[in-house]
Amino acid sequence: MRLFQHSQTNLNQLSRRYLEFYYETVLQESPRSPVHDTVYLSFLVNDNAPHALVNPDEYFIGGEYANGENILYSSQEALLVNKAQIQKLFTIFTERNELNIYGRRKYLISNVLASEIPMEQVRPQPSLNEKAAFPIFGESQREKSVYERTMLDARLGFAVASPSFFLQEGRRQVSVTFVFDPSSLANLRQVLRDLSLASGDSGEEVFIKSFLEAFQLEITCPEGWYPIRKYVVNRVKTKVEEEDFSALSLRFDLERNEPPFVAYQAAIHGGQYQTNHPLLKILLNSQSYIYPYSLLNELVLTQIDISTQVKELKNLQLYSEIGPLDAANPFFPFGAVPNVGSYLIVGSAEIFQKSLNHLALHIEWFNLPRDSAGFGGYYQDYKAGLDNAAFEVKLSILEDGRWKPEMPEEQQDFKLFRTKRTTPSAEDASTTPQAFGMLSPYTHLEDIDVVRMKLPHNFEEMYKPNAYSNTARRGFLKIELSQPELAFGHSLYPTVLSEIVTENAKSSLIEALKRGFAKKQPKKLPNTPYNPQIKSLSLDYASSSVITLNDRATHATQTDRGRFYHILPFGEHQVYPDQGAQHIFLLPEIRYQGALLIGLSQLHPPQSLSILFEMAQTGSDSSEEVPPVLEWSYLSEDQWRVLPESKILRDETSQFIRTGIVVIDLPREMQKGNQTLDASLHWLRIAAIEHVQNASPLRSLCTQVIKASLVNLDEEGKHLQKPLPAFTITRSINNLIGIQRIMQPLPSFGGQAHESQKSFYTRLSERLRHKQRAITAWDYERLILERFAEVQKATCLSNMSSQASHQANSVLIVVSPYPKALNEREGLASREKLYEIKEYLKPFLSPFVKLEVRNPAYERIKIICAVKMIEGYQYGLYLQKLNDALNDYLKRDLLQGGKT
């Protein structure tokens, strides 16, 4: 029997020996050798070393084999390690909506989103057990709830700084008119027409809806930023002959109870605005009828006109001949004994440092004579013609230390008092008082000729304390008593009083001698001279200024008139004055769908920088999804400058589809100190111009990275059965001068164990059948299954694509990988894997075949079962346990490749 077993064994091995002879002897084939795995290594330079060199073939220790031998990895290339590290990560994403106008599609930006990726969650570290995945270029938030949102609405807009905005109190009205290059208005007009066609509303209705809540306005006040709730936007024609508008005006009001509009202070208001003028911030409102960016993004500014009107300004500095006056109580404007030449000086840095278009003075008098004839009755005993119209003042203004106009005849005259109206239709306190009549308690000097005063602006002194002295240069108005010569009769009063007293005394003596005559009444003593007293005084004024942006010659000379800024998601940028600006757009330019902003510290350009991006393997529908179209740029002088493709020395990520190293040569022109972003860092921007949705999410990243491959393998090859865990390699065989730390941020990858005999026979037999050519469906499927061990099932569908079931010359491959864990609900190949399968098959195809590789579309089913539980057990607990057990059983069977 035992002798027979030898013959039986020999006979049973005949087919195997035949295969061995044919495959190994005739065909000279052999099982595939093991493929050594690869690791990423990141280095950190010592504090006292500017850089350090890692040479090729440096050995790093990855643990020990069972026999005590070190597991060695060798660096594949040289790396000059510098100190550059990533400190901040920002993402920006643009939401887009489709507008359908009679079959014509138009895409409008519906929102701009921004977020900061926490560095502690993407910086590799052993304590980070679970890595989150962050959309590397941002993602849409349209279908997310408030609690699910990963990005916030970006602050985007523009700001204007101008001394004309310095408005401390009173009833204030501000109007800002933005004048545009006529050629840049075409897009705004077209979008408004498209919205009108799509909605059925008139053009006027669409404009009102679009700009009713388009902006969020904020102004600088003493406590911070003050929001403006109500404003009006209007279209403006800057020239009469224009057929359509060429400017947009923005108008809002500030009431007396609202805070002052004051100068910007970085410590209070934040930001990096390089100005000491008041600031108006205009942000786009994401909750408006239409997001304003698509309306305004192509507008080119040529001019900004600022007009302000203030009424009832009472915060004034008052002086008379005797010194400062307290406006909180009634005061004597011309001193205790007024004379011709007596004066009241009114000071206000807000008003008199500006170039005025209008100026009005309002006086409320205190304790005026109540005589029905006014001053004519009050001074009737003086017999000097002192009536309501007799009192006049002259106005002059302080300019360069001199009162102007200097000649008295050039100074404007005003009647000082007004009379009350005599009929209901007449205006009270008219500019020309009646000689006799009841005095009005109010005097309004409305027609002050500001042109005669020749007052240019002087914004430099506006924010300084305003106190009058002999050395004062500007900021004051003088109201000088000029008529009548007797002023208010103080010099005449003793004479008049003496005459009346003497006359009364004579009358009394005569009456005493002539007792028989009727008694004559003595004359009434004259009224004491009236000394004018003011209860309150206020000024109205209107001012305007112009910021000309299209004339480059004035860019350096008009800085005192104002500045213009773009407000970006993470900073501000001054675009006027800017000598290098050819055109100044109303809004910052966004030409991308999404962007990643990388802030680098300790960078000293020119330098090369290697960055490892670990991308999450997310499922994709099809290999026909185009990778993102990327544009690399760097920040210099607050301008994003495109990085030439030649500066991207290596990109293993395939446009951020897979994990890999990107090596960049950063130019000398790359600078820090920018206002747009953190000034202490250098900034890189990776912008996805198109197909942003096809980028994989980011898990982690680090700098100063190279790859190292396994050098020595144990005899049994057990090392390749599973990856080398992350953070295993921490040291090298030789001491690396200047290197402080070595880190392995990710597990090893790419390793394959020695091919088994069964796999060898299967591979070779299938190879002999399809002859490395993809012709039949079986050929496609076997080529994929042989090359990609992670694929559980591959199905080839001829003359089909994702778009059509009958399409000639098309081949659709549906692959289903093994689920990696029980917690995965379904097996989906990553976008990287779909691209890899397609690229692998291309050499084996006919050039006329259009190949597509995609994931299956899973149909979810729900199974409802009726289960009866034994009484006495917790029904809810055991029902959940049963449900989990059934799910685990089905998933485990799927992992093993079986069929349930």
Provide mean pLDDT, rounded. 87
How many domains, as an integer? 6
Into which percentage range does the β-strand content fall?
A: 25-35%
Q: Percent of residues in helical segments? A: 10-25%
Total number of helical segments? 15
Question: What composes the largest sheet?
Answer: 8 strands, antiparallel
List the helices and strands and how they pair.
Layout: H1 2-12, H2 14-26, E1 38-45, E2 52-54, E3 59-64, E4 70-75, E5 79-81, E6 85-101, E7 104-116, H3 119-122, E8 152-153, E9 157-161, E10 171-180, H4 186-199, H5 203-212, E11 215-221, E12 224-228, E13 232-236, E14 247-254, H6 266-269, E15 279-284, H7 293-296, E16 300-313, E17 317-320, E18 323-325, E19 343-347, H8 349-352, E20 356-365, H9 375-378, E21 392-399, E22 402-404, E23 412-415, E24 442-445, H10 450-453, E25 474-483, H11 493-513, E26 534-548, E27 563-568, E28 571-576, E29 584-585, E30 594-601, E31 607-615, E32 629-636, E33 639-642, E34 648-651, E35 660-666, E36 682-690, E37 698-703, E38 705-710, E39 731-732, E40 739-743, H12 757-770, H13 777-787, E41 791-798, E42 810-817, H14 831-841, E43 850-854, H15 875-895
Parallel strand pairs: 42-43
Antiparallel strand pairs: 1-38, 1-40, 2-5, 3-4, 3-39, 4-38, 6-7, 6-30, 7-8, 9-15, 9-27, 10-14, 10-16, 11-12, 11-15, 13-14, 16-26, 16-29, 17-18, 17-19, 19-25, 20-24, 20-26, 21-22, 21-23, 21-25, 27-28, 30-36, 31-35, 31-37, 32-33, 32-36, 34-35, 41-42
Helix pairs in contact: 4-5, 12-13
